[in-house]
Structure formats: C-alpha cells, structure tokens
Amino acid sequence: MLEDKFNLTLCETYGLSELSVVSMSTLANHKLGTVGKSICDLKVIDDGGKEVTQGEIGEAVFKVPWVMKEYYKAPDLTAQVLKDGWFHTGDLVRMDEDGYLEYVEKKSFIIVTSSGLKISPWEVEEVLLRHPGVAEAAYVGVK
C-alpha cells in the first residue's frame, strides 16, 4: 500500500541500541514476515546456550565489532548480556531454511506457569483469535 502510493520499496531491519542494525532485507532480497538476513555473526540458542536447529525458536546472540562496551555504571547487567564476545539480546527469533530471521518476541514476555510450562503471549493471542466471537486480541503486562 505505502509502496504503491509513494513509489518506494520498504525494507525491514532489526537492531538494538547496543548493537545498531544486525539484520536487514535488501531491495533484491527480502521475505515478508522476516527482518531479513543477519549481516554479522549470529547464533540462535536455547536456554542452555546450545544452538537450536533451523526453524526452532531460540534467543538471538550476535558477535559484532560495533557492540557497546558496557552499560553505564551497571557491570552486573553488562555481564548478563556480554558473554565471550557474544551479545545476548533477550529476543526470541526463528531462522528459516533460507537464513531469514523472524522476530518472535522478547524472552522476558514468556509466562512460566506454576508447573513450569512456558507459554508465549502471542500463542495465547492466536488461540483467542481462532474463536469466532473474538475479533481482536492483545496481551498487556500487568504486575
């Protein structure tokens, strides 16, 4: 719609203030629903730090020369995200067979039940939206 109206092509990128842009789509190479392909070293890992298989959801960790040095006066927080030169984003992603990255959500949004079951808010949204009496659904964090 915007592309037609303004005669332009939209490309998606993914980045963080600590890293800047780390993945992007190009005019010639983009896939809807993704944030493009990584432009630097990327691993998608599970909670134990092991790389997941292609198509599985895991945390995106990047190694880039332009990563931030530290959080100001927050060495503990810095140590949580910078490990062996890899920046742990806290973002859950999935990489497809072509290397395109799909952003899923923040790892901190995951709901852990009393039995240890992990539920994603977007999964709850999807279930709600399948009900014929629900037109729209959104999750909002409440403490």
TrEMBL record:
Coiled coil regions in record: none
Pfam families in UniProt: AMP-binding
AMP-dependent synthetase/ligase domain mapped to chain residues: 4-72
Molecular function as annotated in GO: acid-thiol ligase activity
Entries under SUPFAM superfamilies matching the protein: Acetyl-CoA synthetase-like
InterPro entries: AMP-bd_C_sf (IPR045851), AMP-dep_synth/lig_dom (IPR000873), ANL_N_sf (IPR042099), ATP-dep_AMP-bd_enzyme (IPR050237)
Protein name: AMP-dependent synthetase/ligase domain-containing protein
Source organism: marine sediment metagenome
